[in-house]
User: Fold this.
Amino acid sequence: MPEKLKTENLSGSWNYHPDLPLQDPSIFQWPPRPAYLVKWLTFNWLMLSERVIMLLMAFALWAFFYPSLETTQTFVVGWILQIWAINFAMVFICSGGLHWYFYIHKGQGKKLKFERRDQGKNNRLWNFSDQVRDNMFWSLGSGVLQLTGFQVVTMWLMANGYAPTITFASNPVWFILALILVPIWSAFHFYWVHRLLHVPFLYKRVHSLHHRNVNIGPWSGFSMHPVEHFIYLTTLCIHWVVATHPIHLFFHIVYQGPGAAMSHTGYEDLLIKDKRRLALGTFYHQLHHRYYECNYGNQEMPWDRWFGTFHDGSEAATVETRARKKRMHA
Assistant:
């Protein structure tokens, strides 16, 4: 039977929300929970999930689209433009496809949609007076350009032996483990740079551009100020010092670029015949876009809970978050 979907929360301020208060789904718990860890691995890596889709994209990019490491040993305009064009198309197709399905085609109406509102239009808050066009401008302009820049430099470092590399044949255990660790490293890095971006000086001048998207959509995920794009994408520098394969880099590229669209759909899951088939956005991060000074990381890492910045969706957490925001921006 299809799962019954809730349409309002306790205060009626959401179109949809999961059961509240939010529980702790982090794999970093004490004492360890082996059964939960097995369940987490199965859900994320042995079933159809965002990560499996992004990993398949990474293998396809490695096999058919991106230039080989041998090609990237010398900086040449041709292969650099090739990477830029592929990244542009990848972000456009992923963000645009999700936007078309959820917001133009309205493939599942407002089922599992967190906010009641649609994307903003005719508002001078946005460049071009349109939220989607504004988000497209920053995502495809600064976002794709800087994503490509970090990738080009990293591939050149790998190709010339300045960054350590591995193959599956030389180290199969680390090859597989590194794939699992890429999203965990990304979450760790994201929490701390996100806290940095919420320092009032940087927030007002940089991060506020992303936070104009209180009501998020697929194009908002990668829509950032150029300074924020640079800070956000420094997560890729891990490949400069830790031995990886180009597939790990490409998986990381997909995770940071198109993956941002998946996590900002504004919907919790993709429904097919009223059944949840693919987890997409999270209410955890939706709360951050509404209340700002909370949930800086994601659900897998425990930092928000450990450092007192966790919003569990309750009214008490909202009061506490608003008080913290007032203190920070006094």
